[in-house]
Amino acid sequence: VLALFKKYVIRDYFLNISEAEKSLEVLNDNLNRSVRYHEITKLISETFDTVLKNIPYAYYILENNRFYLTHYKNVDAHSEILLTNLKSENFKSFSRETFVFRDLTKLDFDETTLNLFINGGLVSVFPFWGHEQIFALLFTDESKIKFIKDDSTLKLFRKIQKKAGLILENSALFIDLEKKNYETAKIIEVSQKILSSLDTKNILDFILDSLQKIIQFDAASIFLLEENGKILLNTSSIGYKNALGDKLYLKVGEGACGWVVQTKQVDVLDDVRNAEHYYGLRPETHSQISIPLIFDTKVLGVICVESNQIAYFTDNLVEVLKLFAHLAAIAIHNAQHFEVMLAKQALEHELVNASAVQQRLLVQQFPKMPNLSLTAENIASKIVSGDIYDFIKLDDKTLGIAIGDVSGKGAPAALMMTLIMAGLRSQHKISSSVKHIVYQLNNLLYDSISRNKFASFFYAQVNMHSNTLIYSNAGHNPPILIKADGTVNTLVTGGIVLGYIQNFIYEQDEIEFKTGDMLAAYTDGVTETLNNNEEEFGETRLIDLLLEHRDKNVEEIQKKIIQSLKEFSNNINPVDDI
Description:
This protein is α+β, with helices and mostly antiparallel strands. The chain has helices at about 1-35, 35-50, 110-120, 150-195, 200-215, 255-265, 315-335, 340-360, 410-430, 435-450, 525, 540-550, 555-570; strands spanning about 55-65, 65-75, 85, 125-130, 135-140, 220-225, 230-240, 250, 265-270, 285-295, 300-305, 385-395, 400-405, 455-465, 470-475, 480, 490, 495, 510, 520. The strands form 4 sheets. It has a 6-stranded antiparallel beta sheet with strand order 8-7-6-11-10-9, with helices on both faces. Strands 12, 13, 14, 15, 18 and 19 form a 6-stranded mixed beta sheet that branches. It has a 5-stranded antiparallel beta sheet with strand order 3-2-1-5-4.
């Protein structure tokens, strides 16, 4: 018996450990070489399928402060665990030293969620940390994992646990950037469709189809309010097993869709089972959002979007849906009035909402830094702008400063602006030097835009501890540095504009930035402002203005510049963004 035990049981035990170790080694090597988010998640999932063979597990990844299920095995396919997403605050007790958490009762779970995981055999949690927060979670049963009992395999698994979260977070930043670009392109596509057609049904079907390519919802419908203001009629729908057809009516006040007509407010139901005002059309639905379609304060209809996941509609998704609701409202208004000119004006009116979304991409609250005063302003020549600025607080003593000017105007320039802003926000987390950040942004634009497009860009890091400013100028108007003693310098070191030549090597410079010094960065809309004689405002006038008012605070100086530009141009609307 002992001989048979050694031959089969012990042999199988070590074979399992050896197989797990090989799989983990392959994953560890591939993590060092992979950069794409979906490729990394696939590698991790395939490895877990191998090393956690016959063991129940569920793998979650963070998105917008919630952990969403990414992959699972050996869990009941009908379990509500598969519908559950988890708030990041549930895991606030975890530290970076936490290798595995074994007592789920100490997590901030409600009783239903806790029982779902325990009854499903998911009684242990392995956290995968990103830069500053947990980025992924592995729920399983630690006691059933054989390789954890082997020191060398355990050491390898812990190494992967520390590495995978960081790599996932870095790659997710680029996925998020691509998603934002795709969203903007779809919004412009829908806007153009609205201008080209006055067929309500056709446009609303197109809006739902475009929306589903951005947001992975399970069903959606658009209801129009009839003239009597009492009945909602389904006009367009997607994702329902039995077509809703044009005979589905809802009374105003009936269900969540009817309720928002009265309130004129967005209604998000994280769990429809607990909702007072919910009219069910699909038994699979777990969460729903209803948005009133409002044009000029008048409710024209409602868009209702449903998901099979609990609490699916994050703040980011709500913002995207609200923007599409604005576009749907324009389409309905245009079709009802059949006036092409009014339709175009309405589109421009609603593009102001897109402009508001764009403005929110720009920093709204300037960072507080000791002994440093900041201000910024963006004045668009059209509804949306191609000029950008940003302040990024890197730590208590260091501030990132950016300004740029995208070629062209309007929606295409706004797309490039969004690309640069998102790229900068992601790069400063993973790149160390100023010139390397500019280098990466250049390659990002080169890979993402057509060859006749580019952007001038200036990026600097101010260190209040060492009183230094490190910068790199990518073909932008040289910012003006006025020293406390009145000396004037322009910051020119760097290289060519972004997006023009791939892998261009940028330079950076380090200069003193002390108490009493002032840095003024601007776009060419300032110096190229024209007067009635077609004379430019110019850099000399700007420098003289800064010297004259440098004893004032930054807000007063900024107002003085804008006032001077208006006086110089005789209050003519600017032809370029400022």
